[in-house]
Amino acid sequence: MRLLIALVVLTLGCSSKKDEPEPKEESGGLLGGLAGKAKSLGDDVAGKAKSIGDDVAGKAKSIGSDVIDKAIEVAVKAGDISGDAFSSGKQLKDELRGKAELAKLDYDLAIDSRTESESDHAARIAGMKQLKVGAYTVGIEQDSKHPLGSVYKWQFRITWRVLDGRAVRLSLFTNHELPDLELATALLTVVPLAERMLK
Questions:
Q1: Which sign does the torsion angle of CA 188, 190, 193, 199 carry?
Q2: Torsion angle of the four alpha carbons 175, 179, 184, 185, in this order, in degrees rounded to the nearest 10
Q3: pLDDT beyond 50 at 131
Q4: What is the rounded CA–CA span in Å between residue 14 and residue 8?
Q5: pLDDT digits (tens, 9 = 90+) for 94-125
């Protein structure tokens, strides 16, 4: 009799398990659900990090611009370079946007001209490194002590004499070293644009 009761219990147990539907795995089961939540959380974190990064970059750019403007103001007050030279430099930089090797750099320009005799000009550029740019002999010197030293590491002073007797003086401020070939390539674009601007 005990054997019969055990068989009945065993049979009922097996048949009830067959009748119950097996639980469906939803999206890969527990691990799939966790993976989905982790991905969603990761996307949220990445989105917030990008937003914070954009905010920081915007503020840094604004602060950098303020520092440059302040340095220019100090340089003008000190009489190192005229305000008009920096204003013309900004116009020239806009003209150069995307047209020259300089487009890859962070830099600022100041440009002006003054009447100078041929002999005075020759004497002034005698101590400078000289490059031929088209029909011009361009004098270049690099200096780490300059009016925008708080913002940029280098000033490249660049000068050439145009046919009407003026000497064009261009100051290029940057943190980058400019090898001669790269600078000469950039000057091939800068010189004609600067001349057109100063007419």
A1: negative
A2: -80
A3: yes
A4: 10
A5: 888 877 667 678 888 999 888 989 999 999 99
Q: Which residue has the tokens 């520092």?
A: 67
DSSP string, 110-176: EEEEEE--HHHHHHHHTTSEEEEETTEEEEEEEESSSTTTTT-SEEEEEEEE-TTSEEEEEEEEESS
CA dihedral 94, 98, 100, 103 (to 10 degrees): 80
Asked if residue 151 lies in contact with residue 69, where contact means CB atoms within 8 angstroms, the answer is no
d(CA 185, CA 168) in angstroms, rounded, equals 18
Residue-range domains of the chain with CATH: 77-198 (3.40.1000)
Beta bridge partners of 112: 169
Closest listed residue to residue 158, CA positions, set 99, 136, 72: 136
| Cα–Cα separations (whole angstroms), residue 90 to 10, 71, 107, 129 | 92, 15, 10, 25
Q: What is the DSSP letter of 1?
A: -
- Mean per-residue pLDDT of the chain: 74
- The amino acid at residue 134 is G
Top pLDDT among 189 and 32 is at: 189
User: Each residue of 142-157: pLDDT tens digit?
Assistant: 999 988 888 899 999 9
Both structure tokens of 144: 């780490």
Task: Read off φ and ψ for residue 176, nearest 5 degrees.
Answer: -95, 145
